[in-house]
Amino acid sequence: MTTHTTTPSPVHSTTGSTPRPVGRGRRSLLALAGLLACAVPVVFTINITRMLVTGIDTDHRFHQLTGQGEILFALWLVPLLALLRAGWQGRRPGTAAGWAHLVLVAAGAGCAVAAPGGGAPLLVGLIVVTGSFVWAALPLRPRLRVGVQVDPLLVPVALAASAVLLPYAVDQIALQNAATTGYHSQNPHFFDMAWISVVLAAYALLAGLVPAVRVLATGFAVAMAWLGTAGLALGESTAWSLTVLACGVLAAGASVVGRGRTARN
Amino acid sequence: MTLGAALAAVPGIGGGLLALALAAANEAWDLAVAGQVPVDAVVAIAYPMTALVVLSSPGLRRGGRSLAWILMLAGGCSGIVTLSTVVAQVATEPSTTTDIALMLLSSVWVPGFLSLLTLVPLFYPDGLLPGRLWRLAALAAAVGLALVTVGVGLYPESFEGRIRLTKPVSNLGVAQTFTYAGAAMLLPAFLAALGSLVVRLVRTRGLARRQVVVFLAAAGLLVAVTVAQGSLPSPVGIVAQALAAALVPVAIGVAITRHGLYDLDVAVRRSIVAASLGTCLAGGYLTLFAVLQALPRHESALSAAVAAGFTGAIMQPLAKRLTAGVDRMFYGDRADPFAVASALATSLTDAGLDVARVPQVLCDTVVETLRLPAARVWLAGDSSDRPVATAGAVGHGPPVQLELRHRGEVVAALDVWPRAGEQTLHPRDEVVVRGLADQVAPAVAAVQLHRQLQRSREALVAAREDERLQLRRDLHDGLGATLAGLRLQVETAQDLSDQPDVEHLLGSAGDGVAQAVAEVRAITDGLRPAALDELGLARALSALADRVRAPGLEVEVDIAEHVSAAPAVEVALHRIAAEALANVVRHSAARRVSLRVRDGRHVELEVSDDGVGLGAATTTAGSGLGLASMRQRAEEVGGTLEVRTSDSGTTVHALLPHAVGDLR
C-alpha cells in the first residue's frame, strides 16, 4: 500500500540509504555465496551442539561451549547472516556487520599464522575465500570508513578485557604449537580459543572507539558472560573466569548506560 | 578532597585489592570461606570510592560529609576484614600475624556491614536525620555497633583455612554480655532506620523522593540476594551478592549524578575520567606487554619499556578524548557547537527542507545533542494554546525561555528545561541553544507567515461560504418566492382571461417567470449544494451515495446521524464525498464502495473501494482525478486529506474540523 497524497505533503529526503532493487541474478549469486559461506559453520554448529547434547568428548565441553563451538559459530555466522540479509533486501549492510566479519577473518588469519597446526590455515583460507564471495555478491558494501569517538565507559572495559584476553590468546597459541601429537594436534581447540579471544578483544575496542559499531558491545558482553560462566561451571581458572565474567557484565552495564543516555532524550 | 580522606580510603580500597591479589596468588579460591572474599572486596572498594567522590565536592555540607564518612568507615572495615580473611586462609602455620588477622576478621565486619543497615539508611540522602528524635536511633546504632564488635571479637571460635586457627583472646561470658546488649540496641536502631526511609518516602516529593526510591531498590535487591544465598549455586550466588552489594554505592552515585544531589557533577566527571584513564592505561600496558612477551627473542625489560613508553605517549591524547567523552555523556555536544550545528543541518536535510518541520527539528536537536530534558516552541501571535513543537519530557519546573527573532521581530519562543538538579541553563548550554535558535529563526518566521496565510485563507473561505449561504437564502426565500408568486398570478390571470391575445401574452410572461425561477434555482444550487439545506448534512451525504448505486456496485453507507459542522466545512465534506464517489464510478471498476462519516472531536470522512487503485485509474483517465481539488477543499477549512491506494482498492480519508481552523 502506498500513500499518494497527504496534507501537508512531505518531500522525501534523497540523502538516506534507500534500498536498491535486487535482480534475480544478483540474488542467485548472493544465495550461492551465502550457501558456500554458511555451510561450514552451520554444519559445525549442528555437530558441536549434537556433541554437547549427547555428551561426546565431555573432556572438551568447555571448548565445545566456547571457542571450538558455540561462541565461534556465533561470531562467524551472525555477521555473515547480517550481510546476506541486507544484500538480499537491497540495503547497505551495517558497518558493524562489515567490521565484525573482517575482524573475524583478520584475527583468524593472524592466529593461523601464529599457530599453523591442526589445519587452522585451511579453515581460515576457506573462510577468506567464501567470505570474499559474499562481499563480491553484495549489491552495496558496508561503510567501513566511519568517525571515531571514544566512549569513556566502554574503552576502559575493552582495554581491561584485552589485558585478560590477549595474554590468554598468547598462552593458547603456545599450547597449540606445543600439541604436536595427540587429540589437539588434529583438532586445534587452542587455536580456536585464541581466535575468539582476539576477536572479542577487537569487538570491545571497536565498540568503544567507533559509535557506528557500538552494537558490537552487546555481542562482546554476551560472549564474555558466556565464556566466564562456562569457565566457572567447567573448572577453568576461577580468577580468569570471574574476570572474564566481570568484563562481560561491565560491558553490558556500559552499553546500557550509553544507550540509556541516548534513549532518554 | 583532603589528604586525610585519601588516606582514609587506603584501608578499604588498598585492603580489598591486596586481598584479591593475595587470594589469586595463593590459589585460595577453593577454600571454605573464600566465597565471602569477593563480596567483602567489592564493599571495601566501592564504598570508599563513593565516599571520596562525595568528599571531593567543594560545596559539601556537614550532613553530606557525615554520610561520606560512614561510607568510608564501612569500606575501610570491609577492607580490613577481607585482607584478614585471606591472610588467615592462606597461612600455613600460626603466628602473631594470623592471631591479629583472626581477631580483626571476627570483629571488624560488624561496623563494616551493620552500619550499612543502620547508619547509612538513617543519614541518607542528605546526611541529616529526619528529626531530633531520630538522634536516639543513631546513638543506639553507634553504641550497639561498638558493643557487638567487642562481643563477637571475644567470642571463642576457630577458623578453618589451610590450617585450623584459634583466637588468642576470648571469653564466652563477656562476649555474650556485650553481644546481647549490643543486639538489643541494634535491632530497634535497624527498625528505626527502615522507618526513617519510609518517613522520607512519605514526606518527600519529586527529586528527593526519587533519590530514596533509587536507594531502596538497590538495598531491597541486596537483601533479596542475601536471603536467597542458600538456594543459589556457589559461583552464581557469590557474583550476585557482590553485584548487589556494589549496587548500593552505585545507587548513591546515581542519586548524586542524575538527581543533582550535592551538586557533584564536576567531581563525578573528574572521577570517571580518572578511573577510565587509569584503567585504560593499565589495560593498554598489560596488553602490549603480553603481546611483546609473546614475540620470539623477547626481553622482559625491553617489553616493559616499550609498553610503558607507549602508554605514556597515549596518555595525554587519551585523557583529552576521555574528558570529551565524559562531557558528552553528561552534557551532549555542548562543548562542540559545530557538532550541534551539523546535527541540526543534517536533521533539516532529512526533513526534506519542509519548513513546517523546522520547529520540531529544533526541539529534537536541542534535546538530543545537549542531553537537555525537554524543549518546545511557541509561535508568536498564535492564538492556539498548544505549542507548535515539543520534544523530551516536559518537567514541572519553570523552563528557560529564549526568543527567536527575525528582522528584529520575535517570531517564536523556545522553552528549554534545565537538567535535573539545575536551577537554570548553564551559560555554555545557553550559548549553543541561542546559536541554534538564531539559525532557524528565518525558517520559523516562514512557518509563522505560512500559518498566518493559512488562517487568512480559512477566514476568507468561512466568510465566503457564510455569504454564499446568506445569498442563497435571500435568493431562495426572497427573489425565488416573489417570482413563484408572480408566476402563480400570471397563470391565474391567464386562466381568467377570455381574450386569446391577452392569454398568449400572459402565457409568454408565465414562461419567462418560470425560466427566471429555474435560473434562480440554478444560481442557488451553484452557491451551495441544495441538499445540505433541504436534507441536512447526514442525509445529503447519504443521498450522494444513493446516486451512485447501480447493478454490480454495492454501496455501503455508515454516517453518524447527528453530524454537524460549520457551513464551509459542510460544503467541503459534500464536495469531497461527491468527487471521491464520482472517481469510484468513473475509474475504479470497483464492485463495492463504502462511505463512512464519523463525528467526534473532528469530522472524519472515508470513501473506500475495492477497485483497481489509482495507478491503473490514472493510466486510463489521464488526469489527477480531482485529488488536488479535494485536497484544496480540505486545506481551505484547515483539514487534511490522505489518499491510500494499492492494486486492491483506494481509500480517501479526510479529517476536517467542526469549525474552520479548529483542527490546528
UniProtKB/TrEMBL annotation, chain A:
Transmembrane segment boundaries: 29-53, 65-84, 96-115, 121-140, 152-170, 190-210, 215-234, 240-258
UniProt feature, compositional bias: Low complexity: 1-19
Region called Disordered, residue ranges: 1-22
Keywords: Membrane, Transmembrane, Transmembrane helix
Coiled-coil positions: none
Protein name (record): Uncharacterized protein
